[in-house]
Design a protein that fits this description.
41% helix; alpha+beta; four-stranded mixed beta sheet; five-stranded antiparallel beta sheet
Length: 233
Amino acid sequence: MCEIEVEQIPGLPGKLPEGERLLWQSRPSWHALARRCFKVRAIAIYFAVFAVWWTVSALSDGAAFGPALLDGLAVVPVAALGIAVVCGLAWLTAHNSIYSITSKRVVIRTGIALPMTFNVPFSRIASANMKVEANKTGDIVLALSGRDRIAYAHLWPHARPWHLKDVQPMLRGLPDVQAVGALLSDALAQASGQAAAESESVTAKPAILDAHEKERPWQGEPRPGAVPLAAAE
């Protein structure tokens, strides 16, 4: 599911096989990564609280308001540098990440110093959840079926937070997440319908197939028909 390749097509590990089409490509918004992954707002609030505390502490020690305020403002250059570093990391991460949806898989290319490509075939996607923010951006989370898993550290920040064991790939900071969700839903439904048609063309008897389904319950592969995206919690 994960390999390091020399890209012939940006965002993809190689040329698409015959019969596979590229449906969509985009990069995550660095603003969204800065807010949701690198917690730039929390960092700014931390420095603001520290500046207020420094000012109050100076006042409690008997300093005049002007000098006390200057003591608090001394934190501003450090805060600006820290926020600039975090925003720079968010921009580099977004600039070096590409999300792709083809007619058969979802591809996540990421990595600043060491680019890596993660292929998620539709047959391995158990469910897809979507979260929409107030500014129309949002995230899409992919829950995987099967035993193979991706290392959380390799996939971050394109992974659902706190799901360290059952790692779930995540398309973050999509500018128009609802349109992307509809496209992915249609692609999953179409691929599932094609897989069902191929399974019906085999020579096995229907009774054998029914018995097999009873012995081995469904484990998350997409079913024929529409596959709507559920709202993420």
